[in-house]
Amino acid sequence: MTAKTEMEFAVEVEVLGRVRHKNLLGLRGFYAGGDERLIVYDFMPNQSLLTHLHGHLSSNCLLDWPKRINIAIGAAEGLAYLHHEANPHIIHRDIKASNVLLDLEFQAKVADFGFAKLRPEGVYLLSSHEKELAYIT
C-alpha cells in the first residue's frame, strides 16, 4: 500500500467520522489491518449521478428535470454544510458526477472524501489551481 493510498484512507475516515448531514454519504464502519483498508458506507441503490447521465443506465435515464434539480440542490446543500457548518470546515476538492451518489429516492449523497482538506478556524481560501490550495489567515 502506498503512502498516498494510506493518507487518502485516513483522511476519508477522519472526515466521514466528523460529519452528519442528509446529503453526505454515511460512514457505517471501517477496518485497517495489515495491507487491507475497508470502509463501509450506506448502500446507494441508484448508484451515481454519472451512471444515470453518461453510464450504462443513461439510455433509460430516470432523471427528469425536476429530479436533476433536486439532486443538484441536495449536493449543493451537502457541500454548503462542509464549507460552512462542519467544524472544522471541510473542502471536498473532488466533486464530480461519480462522487454524487443516489439513494432509493434519488436524493443526492456527496461521497469520496479522500482528497478533502480540513480548513482550520480563521483560515480562508485565497486561490485554487489544480487541487493546490492557497490560504490566508
Automatic annotation (TrEMBL):
Q: Which reaction does it catalyse?
A: L-seryl-[protein] + ATP = O-phospho-L-seryl-[protein] + ADP + H(+); L-threonyl-[protein] + ATP = O-phospho-L-threonyl-[protein] + ADP + H(+)
The main location class comes to: membrane
EC number(s): the record gives 2.7.11.1
Could you list this entry's UniProt keywords, alphabetically sorted: ATP-binding, Cell membrane, Kinase, Membrane, Nucleotide-binding, Serine/threonine-protein kinase, Transferase, Transmembrane, Transmembrane helix
One Gene Ontology cellular component? plasma membrane
**What Gene Ontology molecular-function terms does this entry list?**
ATP binding; protein serine/threonine kinase activity; protein tyrosine kinase activity
| Official protein name in the record | non-specific serine/threonine protein kinase
Native species: Arachis hypogaea
